[in-house]
Amino acid sequence: MKTTVTLSALLGLAGLTSAHYTFDKLLVNDVKQGGDNTYIRKHTRGYMPTKGTEILEEDFRCNTNAQPAPQVMTVKPGDKIGFQQAFGANGIEHPGPTQVYMTAAKNGAKNEDGSGDWFKVAQSLICKAGNAESLRNYAWCSWKENNVNFVMPESVPDGEYLVRAEHIALHGAHAGQAEFYYACAQIKVEGSKATAAPSPTTKIPGVYAVKDKAINFSLWGSSTSYPEIPGIPVMAGGEIRGSADGKSGDKRVAAPGASDSSTKAAAPATNNNAAAPSNNNNNNNNNNAAPSGNNDNNKPAGNKGFGGETKAAAASANGPSCKSRRSKRFES
């Protein structure tokens, strides 16, 4: 039995080694706005992930050598915002959660460097309850979706912001090799009635420690839930999609408010209110068994990504490809 589990884990890792991506297109209410990097800052990392101690570097804000985008997109509370994959990729096929952070741009989004305070506006977790095997793929809300999305809360005041969308791939997290895929958009919020600055806040880098339990979680044992949520709690009124164990289904609810960051995520059967994360923990006490052999340390060969050549393979050295599915609108 142990041999079978280990072999399954190794085969799973082998299939995930080339599924890399980034984000360069902005969606508003499921409609693409402008072209590539019109509103999302272009960076030089391509589709390769950030890993290990790289999460402590300043480039972890908006990715390597990210440059201001030419335009700022104006949205209103209630608009659905999406960060769509680049290079022809068409679906996330790594298991793991998504987060969206925002920081106020007092001198305009084009001039913001991200050194101020960030707050979490959204997160997605597990949308399908199942067995341990499902936690390695389709259980996650973001599985096979081609964008990280959220609904702009009523509780975000008017103003310009950097908005940072992130997906954390956990297939190598057991070996300290969680993969971070992220980018920043320049957005202006208009029509909000909120006046108070959102809280709690964090710094980026600083939102995660290298040894945090949430980013060292093993998918390769018997766990059917994800009890440690990355980063700070979602702001009051922000969006929580799914839950720690997926029993609530693919639902989106408004976060009730900040909670104690030392509390583990709840695994509710009838509601969606996952509790706050255990952040900056220095020990990984998850008892799931890790697979033997190599994890996802290798760069993809050529232009391979999500299982094949990309549509833009001839034009770009960075090109994954995959499937997508649209998500439901926010429900409160």
TrEMBL record:
Keywords: Carbohydrate metabolism, Cellulose degradation, Disulfide bond, Polysaccharide degradation, Secreted, Signal. Residues 20-226 form the Auxiliary Activity family 9 catalytic domain. The keyword Secreted applies. InterPro entries: AA9, AA9_LPMO. It is found in: Secreted. Residues 265-298 have a biased composition (Low complexity). Residues 1-19 form the signal peptide. Its cofactor is Cu(2+). It catalyses: [(1->4)-beta-D-glucosyl]n+m + reduced acceptor + O2 = 4-dehydro-beta-D-glucosyl-[(1->4)-beta-D-glucosyl]n-1 + [(1->4)-beta-D-glucosyl]m + acceptor + H2O. Residues 240-332 are annotated as: Disordered. Residues 323-332 have a biased composition (Basic residues). Residues 242-253 have a biased composition (Basic and acidic residues). Its EC number is 1.14.99.56. The keyword Phosphoprotein does not apply. Belongs to the polysaccharide monooxygenase AA9 family. This is lytic cellulose monooxygenase (C4-dehydrogenating). It comes from Apiospora phragmitis.
